[in-house]
Inverse folding.
């Protein structure tokens, strides 16, 4: 893959990641009804599914963030001799990244595509962790303050384990979202964000690190 491929991958994966997480956070903040009214529809109330929104926001958003960060890391390692040229140039083809206004633009792009996804994932994780857990069609209920998705409760009667809004109490276990199996939940909910954050931090390190110039190789002339 060449420089253009990495640039396009980072651009579109990052756009998808930011939009997905922004939509998730807007829903968590109660903005889904406002957006619905803005476009002529009543809109739904996402408050009853905040934990589910946070759960999917974390797992899907982290997956997109991880793949996008890999593309950014590879671009930063292979191309550019200064920090501003190691950040893929998106939207502004032919941008002279050495100009001061171009450097500001590159920093803004980096903040939008790295800092914003990180903040969105943290917000989604906090919301999901606050949710209650229950076993479907049983009386097995677990308060969010007493559980963690790092080691979620297991099904005692072989039914679905569901994550639902905090404070649901002993209401019938029908709302919310089904959790991954116990072994996969920590990997998806904590492993993916950790891997994505580490990869993004590694990419940022390579962007701003000072590198020694590669020694020039002398060409042997044949006579």
């Amino acid at each position: 893959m060449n420089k253009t491929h990495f640039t396009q991958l980072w651009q579109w994966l990052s756009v998808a990641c930011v939009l997905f997480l922004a939509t998730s956070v807007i829903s968590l903040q109660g903005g889904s009804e406002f957006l619905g009214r803005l476009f002529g529809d009543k809109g739904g109330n996402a408050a009853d599914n905040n934990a589910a929104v946070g759960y999917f926001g974390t797992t899907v958003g982290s997956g997109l963030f991880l793949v996008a960060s890999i593309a950014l890391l590879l671009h930063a390692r292979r191309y550019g001799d200064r920090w501003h040229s190691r950040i893929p140039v998106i939207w502004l083809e032919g941008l002279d990244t050495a100009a001061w206004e171009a450097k500001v633009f590159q920093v803004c792009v980096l903040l939008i595509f790295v800092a914003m996804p990180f903040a969105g994932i943290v917000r989604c994780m906090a919301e999901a962790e606050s949710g209650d857990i229950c076993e479907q069609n049983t009386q097995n209920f677990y308060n969010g303050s007493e559980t963690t998705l790092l080691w979620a409760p297991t099904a005692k009667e072989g039914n679905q384990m569901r994550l639902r809004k905090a404070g649901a109490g002993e209401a019938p276990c029908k709302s919310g979202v089904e959790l991954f199996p116990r072994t996969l939940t920590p990997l998806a909910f904590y492993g993916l964000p950790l891997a994505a954050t580490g990869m993004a931090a590694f990419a940022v390190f390579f962007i701003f690190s000072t590198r020694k110039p590669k020694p020039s190789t002398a060409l042997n002339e044949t006579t």
DSSP finds six helices and four strands in the chain. The longest strand covers residues 132-135. The first helix runs from residue 3 to 28.
